[in-house]
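Friendly challenge for the regulars: who can give me the C-alpha cells for this chain first? No prize, just bragging rights.
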Amino acid sequence: MTVEIQLLGTPRLRVDGEPRALRGRKAWSLLTHLLLADRPASREQLAELLFPEAADPLGALRWNLAELRRGLGPDSIAAGREPAVTLPLDTVVDVRVLRDGTPAEAAALPGLGAELLEGVEAASPAF
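First reply, four minutes later:
Bragging rights claimed.
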C-alpha cells in the first residue's frame, strides 16, 4: 500500500494512487498533529486541544480517529491511551519531505509555498 499525504496547501490523501476523502476539518487537524507532534499526546490532551467546544470531546476524538482509520486503513491508527499514526515505510508526507528531504525533493512538492492546511479553519485557538 502506497500512501501520499499533502498537508501544504489544500490537504489531500491518496492511497495506492486513488484519492481518499477525510470528512471534516478536524480529521485533517488531528492527522496533522499526530504526524508532526514532537511527542505523543494522550486522548485527553488531544480532546482538549482539538474539541474543547464539543459536548463530548472524547467522543468527538473517537469519531475523528475512526475517520482517519477509514481513510488511511484499519491498522493506520494505533489504539491506546496515546493514539499514533502507523503507516507504511514508503509513505510520503509533504511536510516531512520539506523537513527531511533533499532540496530537489522539497522543490518538487506541489504545495510548496502554500500554508499548512490551507483552507482548513483552525480546530481551536490553542491548535
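The helical segments are 25-36, 43-50, 57-72, 94-100, 103-107. The longest strand covers residues 3-6. Your move, everyone else.
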